[in-house]
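Troubleshooting log. The previous structure file for this entry was overwritten by mistake, so regenerating from the original sequence record. Sequence copied from the archived sheet and checked twice against the printout by T.R.
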Amino acid sequence: MKKLFVATLIIIMLLGFYLYSQNKATKSTASSSMWLVDWQPEAGLQDAQKLGDALGSVSLFGIYYNKEHTSFLPASSKKLIMDSKHLHAKRYLTVVNDQIQGKKKLKSIAVINSILDNPKKHQQQLIHLTKQAQVDGLELDYENIPADKEAQYLQFIKDLQQQLDDEEIALRVVIEPTFKAPLPANTQFIIMAYNLHGPHNDAGPKANFEFLDTLAKRFPNDAKNITIAFSLGGFLFTQDGVKSLTDKEIAALDTSKAKRDSASAAMSFTNEDGSEVWYSDTETLKQWRDYMQKKNYTYFAYWRAGGIAEKTLTMLKDD
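Regenerated output below.
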C-alpha cells in the first residue's frame, strides 16, 4: 500500500512538472509588447486577449509607493495580475515612482532619491513583491531621474539584476528619451519614443522622424537589447489644456479633414474652435516601426492596451 502511495505521488509530481513546463513552453515569442494598467483592467485585458500570440510580453501596472516611499501592490494591481494569468505572453510587473498614498505625486523625484539612498532595502522590497505576484519578470519604469544620478541609477539596475538572476526573474528597464548615460549591453531596455508633444508643450505629434533619429544615435542597438516604445491614440490641444484621446475615441471622431504630416507621419486636423487633434493611425505606426527597423531595432512596445480600435488591433495582430 505504501509503495502504491509513493508511486502515485511521483506520478502526480511528474504530471505537475509536465503541465508547468508546457505552460512555460507556450509563452509567446512575438516581438511586440504592451502595457496594461490597473485603472482600466477589463478593456486592457480584452485588447491583450484579442492580440493573442502577437504579444510576446505584457507589462502590468503595477507597484506604487506610499508616503514613506515604501513600495506596495494595491488591490487593483493584484486583481490585474490575477486576471492576466491566462495570457500566453510573458508577464512583467511594472514599478513606477508614483506616490499614491499620502500626498500624491506622480514621477516623484523624492521616491527616486529614497531608492538611491538605500538601494538594498528597495531592491529587497521589489524582489519580494515580484515573487509574491508570481510573474515572469520585473520592469522598472522610473521617470525624472536627475541627470547627476544616472550613473548611480545604472548601478542600482546592475545590482538588482544580479539578484533577480539568482531568483530566475527577468528584468527590463524603461528609459526616458532624455537619459544621457550610455546603457549597458547586458540589460533589456525599453526606450520611450513618444510625447515629443503633449501636456507639457504645444500642439504636435507624439514623435517625428528627427526625434527617432536622435533616439537611434543616443541609444544604439548594437547588442539587440533595446525595445522601442510607441504611443497609440493622440491628444486634443485646446486653449484650456490638453486631453488624451484613446485610439477608439479618435476613431469615433470626424477625421475626414485630417492630413498626414510628412515630418512625422502623424495625422492632424483643426476644429472650428481652433483646437487641434494630433494622433497616430495604423499608417503612422507602420512608418515609425519601419523607420526604426532600418536602424537596427526589431522589438516594439505600445502604450497602451485599453481603448484600441479594431483596425489597429488587426494591424498589430497581422504583424
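Residues 2-25 form the longest helix (24 residues). Archived copy saved in two places this time.
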